[in-house]
Amino acid sequence: MLADEPTGNLDSARSHEIMHLLTRLNKEQGLTVVLVTHENDIAEYAHRRLEFKDGKIIGEIDVKHCA
Length: 67
Description:
The protein has one domain (about 1-60): Rossmann fold (3-Layer(aba) Sandwich). It contains 2 helices and 4 strands; from the N terminus they run βαβαββ. It has helices spanning about 10-30, 40-45, and strands at about 1-5, 35, 50-55, 55-60.
Protein backbone atom coordinates (compact mmCIF):
# COMPACT_ATOMS: atom_id res chain seq x y z
CA MET A 1 0.00 0.00 0.00
CA LEU A 2 1.28 3.45 -0.88
CA ALA A 3 0.04 6.14 1.51
CA ASP A 4 0.92 9.82 1.05
CA GLU A 5 0.13 11.71 4.27
CA PRO A 6 -2.78 9.40 5.21
CA THR A 7 -3.21 11.22 8.54
CA GLY A 8 -2.50 14.75 7.32
CA ASN A 9 -5.99 16.20 7.85
CA LEU A 10 -6.96 14.15 10.89
CA ASP A 11 -6.93 14.92 14.60
CA SER A 12 -4.42 13.06 16.77
CA ALA A 13 -6.83 10.37 17.97
CA ARG A 14 -7.97 9.49 14.43
CA SER A 15 -4.37 9.60 13.16
CA HIS A 16 -3.33 6.98 15.68
CA GLU A 17 -6.41 4.86 14.89
CA ILE A 18 -5.36 4.81 11.23
CA MET A 19 -1.79 3.93 12.14
CA HIS A 20 -2.94 1.09 14.42
CA LEU A 21 -5.05 -0.24 11.54
CA LEU A 22 -2.10 -0.07 9.11
CA THR A 23 0.16 -1.71 11.70
CA ARG A 24 -2.37 -4.51 12.21
CA LEU A 25 -2.70 -5.07 8.46
CA ASN A 26 1.08 -5.30 8.21
CA LYS A 27 1.39 -7.81 11.04
CA GLU A 28 -1.69 -9.95 10.37
CA GLN A 29 -1.97 -9.83 6.58
CA GLY A 30 1.67 -9.26 5.63
CA LEU A 31 0.71 -6.02 3.86
CA THR A 32 3.69 -3.82 3.01
CA VAL A 33 2.95 -0.16 3.73
CA VAL A 34 5.02 2.65 2.23
CA LEU A 35 3.98 5.83 3.97
CA VAL A 36 5.02 9.44 3.48
CA THR A 37 4.65 11.81 6.42
CA HIS A 38 6.08 14.98 7.91
CA GLU A 39 4.88 13.99 11.40
CA ASN A 40 7.50 12.39 13.67
CA ASP A 41 4.92 10.65 15.89
CA ILE A 42 3.45 8.95 12.82
CA ALA A 43 6.89 8.04 11.44
CA GLU A 44 7.66 6.26 14.72
CA TYR A 45 5.23 3.48 13.75
CA ALA A 46 7.58 2.37 10.98
CA HIS A 47 9.99 -0.56 11.05
CA ARG A 48 12.27 1.34 8.70
CA ARG A 49 12.48 5.07 8.06
CA LEU A 50 14.19 7.02 5.32
CA GLU A 51 14.67 10.77 5.60
CA PHE A 52 14.87 12.82 2.42
CA LYS A 53 16.06 16.34 1.71
CA ASP A 54 16.14 17.90 -1.74
CA GLY A 55 15.31 14.54 -3.32
CA LYS A 56 18.18 12.68 -1.66
CA ILE A 57 18.26 10.22 1.21
CA ILE A 58 20.02 11.91 4.12
CA GLY A 59 19.23 9.40 6.85
CA GLU A 60 17.98 5.91 7.54
CA ILE A 61 16.70 4.27 10.72
CA ASP A 62 16.05 0.53 10.89
CA VAL A 63 13.81 -0.14 13.89
CA LYS A 64 13.60 -3.70 15.23
CA HIS A 65 10.12 -3.27 16.72
CA CYS A 66 6.95 -1.44 15.74
CA ALA A 67 5.19 1.05 18.02
